[in-house]
Amino acid sequence: MRVAVTGRPGIGKTTLCLKVYEALKSKMKISGFITMEERDKGVRVGFKLVDLASNRSSPL
User: How many other C-beta atoms lie within 10 A of the C-beta of residue 30?
Assistant: First the structure.
């Protein structure tokens, strides 16, 4: 199964994905990635890409 989550900034897409991941990771193999904001003093300065399977991240 493949699922894509889309929507406007700030509506909770990443939060939803992380909650689903936490609920299902012990029941099945889950792979994919999320992008997390990088902030400095409250200002977005970039993003990092996080692999859900390995928890490795890389700046975008």
Answer: 13
CA 27 to chain centre: 19
How many Å apart are CA 53 and CA 11, to the nearest integer? 24
- Confidence class for position 3, pLDDT limits 50, 70, 90: confident
Q: Sign of the C-alpha dihedral, residues 5, 8, 14, 19?
A: negative
33 token code pair? 């990635």
Express each pLDDT in 7-31 by its tens digit: 998 899 999 999 999 999 999 988 8
Query: How far is it between the farthest Cα atoms of the chain?
Result: 39
Boundaries of every domain in the chain: 13-59
